[in-house]
Design brief:
There is one protein chain. The chain is α/β, with parallel strands linked by helices. Helices cover 55% and strands 15% of the residues.
Length: 321
C-alpha cells in the first residue's frame, strides 16, 4: 500500500508519496482544482492500485480533495492539524516546510491515524453552524472593542455606532442557524431534545456535526470524534491515560456538548450527582464537566441509534437552552 499525503492550501497542494515503509517515493505540486487533483490521483492510482490519501482538516480548502476522493472511490483520511504539528516537532528538528508537512501527513496516515472522510464532510448544515459560531465570536469581539473605547473615555454615544453592525451579525447568525435547521432530520431533532441540557439551538448544531449516526460503530467513536477522549501515552509495555483531551475531532461538536453538559449537571439528577462526585474526588470544574459531556454523548448515541426518546429518572427537571 502507498499513501499520498496532501498539505492543503488555498491555491496549491504539496504532495508526498510514501511506500508501506514510510520512505519517500515521489513529490508533486498540484493546483487545488477538481480537474488537477483527479488527474494526479488517477495517475498515481494506475501505477499503485492499493492507494490511500490523507490530508489535514483546513476549514474549507480540503473540500475539493474530499469530493474528488469520494467520486473516485479512494479512501481519504483526515488529520487534526495538531497531530501533524506534534509529529513534525518530534521528527524534524527545527525545520518546517510544506513538503515536510506533506511527508508527515503521509506517514501518519500510514500508521492508521486520522478519521475516514465521508459524504457528511460535505454537509451544508455543518458549514452553516460552524459559520454561525464564528459570526457570534465576531459579535463578541465587537462588543469588547466597544467597551474598550468607553473605558478610554470615548463619548458613551459611541455605542450607537455599533448598533447596525451588531444587529446585522445577530441576524446573520439567526439566518445561518435557520438554514442548518431546515436540513437536519426533524425526528432526530425532537429525539435528542428529550435529553436534559440539549435545546433547540444546540440540537441543530449537534445533529449537523454528527451527520449520519450510523458511521459511528459505538458511542466511543462518537466521543472520539468530538475530541472528548483522553490522550493515551505508551512507553514499552506501559499504557497510561492522562486527563488531557485529544481534541482531535470536531471543535464545534465539543463546544456544544460542553455547553449542554454544563446545563445538564445542574438540572439532571443523575448527572448532577455524577458531577458532584467528580468534584468530591478533587477534580476541577472543567474535567468534571467533560466527564458529564462524555455521559451525555453516550445518551445522544443511544437515542439516535434506538430512535427512542431519553426517559428522565428522578425528580422533575427543567431546561434552560
Amino acid at each position: 500500500m502507498l499513501v499520498l499525503g496532501f498539505d492543503v492550501a488555498k491555491d496549491k497542494l504539496d504532495v508526498a508519496l510514501v511506500n508501506r515503509s514510510g520512505q519517500l517515493k515521489d513529490r508533486y505540486l498540484v493546483s487545488n482544482s477538481s480537474k488537477d487533483l483527479t488527474k494526479l490521483i488517477k495517475q498515481v492510482g494506475t501505477k499503485h492500485p492499493k492507494l490511500m490519501v490523507g490530508c489535514e482538516a483546513t476549514g474549507s480548502y480540503h473540500i475539493t480533495l474530499i469530493k474528488v476522493c469520494l467520486d473516485l472511490g479512494i479512501e481519504l483520511r483526515i488529520l487534526n492539524p495538531l497531530m501533524t504539528k506534534q509529529y513534525t516537532r518530534a521528527t524534524i528538528r527545527g525545520r518546517k516546510t510544506d513538503l515536510d508537512d506533506a511527508l508527515s501527513i503521509a506517514r501518519l496516515i500510514l500508521r492508521g491515524e486520522g478519521r475516514l472522510a465521508s459524504i457528511s464532510d460535505l454537509s451544508l448544515p455543518k458549514v452553516y453552524v460552524r459559520l454561525a459560531t464564528k459570526v457570534v465570536q465576531q459579535r463578541q469581539a465587537l462588543d469588547l472593542q466597544k467597551q474598550f473605547l468607553i473605558r478610554l473615555g470615548a463619548n458613551k454615544d459611541i455605542s450607537g455606532l455599533f448598533i447596525p453592525a451588531t444587529e446585522a451579525l445577530e441576524q446573520l447568525t439567526k439566518d445561518l442557524r435557520g438554514k442548518a435547521f431546515k436540513d437536519v432530520n426533524l425526528a432526530d431533532y425532537e429525539l435528542i431534545q428529550s435529553i436534559v441540557g440539549i435545546g433547540s439551538t444546540t440540537a441543530t448544531s449537534i445533529l449537523a456535526e454528527i451527520g449520519d449516526i450510523r458511521r459511528f460503530p459505538s458511542s466511543k467513536q462518537l466521543i472520539a470524534y468530538a475530541g472528548l477522549d483522553p490522550r493515551v501515552k505508551q512507553s514499552g509495555t506501559t499504557l497510561n491515560r492522562n486527563t488531557k483531551l485529544t481534541k482531535r475531532g470536531s471543535p464545534e461538536l465539543r463546544r456544544c456538548l460542553f455547553l449542554c453538559a454544563n446545563t445538564a449537571r445542574r438540572y439532571d439528577p443523575e448527572l448532577k450527582a455524577y458531577y458532584q462526585n467528580k468534584r468530591d474526588q478533587g477534580k476541577a470544574y472543567t474535567p468534571s464537566v467533560v466527564a458529564v459531556a462524555q455521559k451525555l454523548t453516550n445518551r445522544i448515541y443511544a437515542v439516535l441509534t434506538r430512535q427512542t426518546p431519553y426517559v428522565i429518572t428522578g425528580s422533575d427537571t427543567s431546561r434552560t437552552h
